[in-house]
Amino acid sequence: MLRLPLFRHPAGAGPVLRILAMLLLVLSLFMLIPLALLALEGDGQMWPFLWAFAVTFGTGVVFILLTWGVHIELRPRQMFILTTSSWVVMSAFSSLPMQFGAPRLSVADAVFESVSAITTTGATVLVGIEHLSDGLKLWRGLMQWVGGVGIIVMAIAVLPFLRVGGMRLFQTESSDWSDKVLPRAGTVAKAIGLVYVGFTIVSIVSYWLAGMLPLDAFVHGMTSVATGGFANYDASFGQYADQPVILWLSVLSMLTGALPFVLYIRMARERSGVLWKDQQVRGLLALLVVVIALLTLYRAVRGMEFFDALTQVAFNVVSVVTTTGYATDDYTAWGPLSAAAFFYLTFVGGCSGSTSGGMKVFRFQVGLIMLVNQLRYLVHANGVFVQRYNGRVLTDDQIRGVIAFSFFFFFTVAVLALGLSLMGLDFVTALSGAATAVANVGPGLGEIIGPAGNFAPLPDAAKWMLSIGMLMGRLEILTVLVLLTPTFWRK
Fold it and tell me: How far is residue 344's CA from residue 413's CA, in Å, rounded to a whole number?
């Protein structure tokens, strides 16, 4: 057995590297899918994927050999390292097909695009997407789809164990975190994988029956359920702006991805109304209904036909709230109220345990519960008030987690916006760019990175900063920040 001395250390990197090796091998197999498509089409642009496969597969094999015989048993410290390093490594190697196949892209561009894909952000630096090879179009969709399932597993099986941002609220009753984490994660991944694949197939077939071309249906089906937002056209879903059936099918697909996947599993087993009983699901749907109603009336009184207004508003609101990032129109041009509303909606996000980014609905609900209780304390100083969420008593640990996450979320947005301003970006572009990156939404505001633009004109330094912001947002910020503390690295 080949071992390195480092791996014999109790806090060694052996288990982490071994799992990273497995992830790279799986990623390399996904690279064979667009390669097979290009081979069937007789397209000569196969070499980028061949080189990317060789590098990714080769690196995975080397890591496997270096960690041969290493027993995989992760401790909390290693879980933090693995969670962050896995997203960084997957993003880096996912960029290889674009680095090899799109020579016009800088390294910053390719990495930005892959980070945006893996984190399901949906921001893009590509211009002329229609003219990309079918292989690259498919690869962009596959990256978001793979990132989507990784996000769900992380949110359900990893973050509650790490006590990140109040996620302990969503630890399932059957979880026994005194035992090993990986068997639990594996069980969750299998169940979620079946549901995820099923919803994706339904979305793909629905798009195809509604009139999309086969490749478009396949890519958009994956990126809708993953709430990713990558489309096969520069105009995003503006390509289908005059096809309301496709837009409403997309609304359903995006909502499917934004709800807690663990509840789908419970529904299949218990056949009960657990989805509607969940407090965050009701909160998300109520928010969507109110905002869609208000903005539909806002557009209707300004002269737009009611059904068209409803369709356009519903699609774009659901897209932003679920952090998908599709757009049918430049909604910032609908009026001042619309621009302000979409900026605030950028922060919300979907439900915990879904593919959505953002702060998540439950944190706003917990914040509201704390606010109401604080007002009660001011009126009844000697009163005893129990704070509950989803029928469970909120613990001090959970409340501290929500407060800490919320603070660091907005702090990260503020610091990133300041950094982007130093790169020469105007205030609207810098602030909305920081917000959309950390919230993993996609489009920002303004002429440059708004729904009608993209991130290509930004300097490379800004793209690197935004890439870091996307990764931090997807990893719930605290998971990354804890690695920067000296205490974490002490024995």
Answer: 13
Tens of pLDDT along 121-140?
999 999 999 999 999 999 99
Would you say 473 is a known binding-site residue? no
* DSSP-based three-state secondary structure for 261: helix
Residue 388, helix vs strand vs coil: strand
| 322 is an annotated ligand-binding site residue | no
Identify the top-confidence range among 169-178, 242-251, 273-282: 242-251
353 is in an annotated binding site: no
Is 232 among the annotated ligand-binding positions? Answer: no
Whether 229 and 442 have beta carbons less than 8 Å apart is answered as: yes
Q: Taking the alpha carbons of 66, 68, 69, 72 in that order, is the dihedral positive or negative?
A: positive
Which H or E run contains 392? strand 392-393
Residue 332 labelled as part of a binding site? no
The amino acid present at 409, given as its one-letter code, is F
Note the pLDDT of residue 146.
Answer: 92
409 close to 359: Cβ distance less than 8 angstroms: yes
Q: Under a CB-based contact definition with an 8 Å cutoff, are residues 281 and 263 in contact?
A: yes
Q: Tens digit of pLDDT for each residue in 331-375? A: 998 989 999 999 999 999 999 889 999 999 999 999 999 999 889
Ligand-binding annotation for 402, yes or no, is: no
Give the number of other Cβ atoms within 10 Å of residue 168's Cβ.
17
Beta bridge partners of 308: none
